């Protein structure tokens, strides 16, 4: 199924670039563009895209307020939002996630991660840029339960390796390279981990690993 995306950014060149990148990906098509947050909310409610790609700093209504309007608590029929920004500021990350965003990326994340985030949001999952994951762990781990709930079923050794790598902030491609497994296998293990641990995204996986005291050393490399 093709994922229909609405792109919201106040810069014409950025919108054009994002459209070009997304339209070049398998299974993704851009169905609309918005130059400010208010326009993004109106278009999203009319077009009902599968995912909204939302910049933070926009006129009229900023991306965080637009995210709350489309995906925040109490919204009857929320639309998945992935926030993408130039600004690597913790307060933006926290507020974006609290506003209901299903992903948070920097604009230099690259086409592959951008596509991964869009597909993850469409599936109901979440993807957060690995370079902000470690900071989020430090911020959220203190409020996490001291003894996290056990997994619904035991983790396999390979899942333990993938969990340890994700907890260190490695991206999917880096995990695949480190463990000598395919990218699709990494994604399969992450999906399984989220199911077993009741986690919604990589940050919650990392927090679980931190609280449990998962292996902090580099994952073993097995053939």
From TrEMBL:
Coiled-coil portions: none
Signal peptide coordinates: none
InterPro entries registered for this protein in UniProt: CheY-like_superfamily (IPR011006), NreC/VraR/RcsB-like_REC (IPR058245), Sig_transdc_resp-reg_C-effctor (IPR016032), Sig_transdc_resp-reg_receiver (IPR001789), Tscrpt_reg_LuxR_C (IPR000792), WalR-like (IPR039420)
Record's keyword annotation contains Lipoprotein: no
An example Gene Ontology biological process: phosphorelay signal transduction system
Keywords: DNA-binding, Phosphoprotein, Transcription, Transcription regulation
Residue stretches making up the HTH luxR-type domain: 148-213
SUPFAM superfamilies registered for this protein in UniProt: C-terminal effector domain of the bipartite response regulators, CheY-like
CDD domains tied to this protein: LuxR_C_like, REC_NarL-like
Annotated Response regulatory domain residues: 4-122
Gene Ontology molecular function: any one: DNA binding
Keyword Cytoplasm: no
Positions where 4-aspartylphosphate occurs in the chain: 55
Pfam families in alphabetical order: GerE (PF00196), Response_reg (PF00072)
Name of the protein: Response regulator transcription factor
Species the sequence originates in: Microbacterium allomyrinae
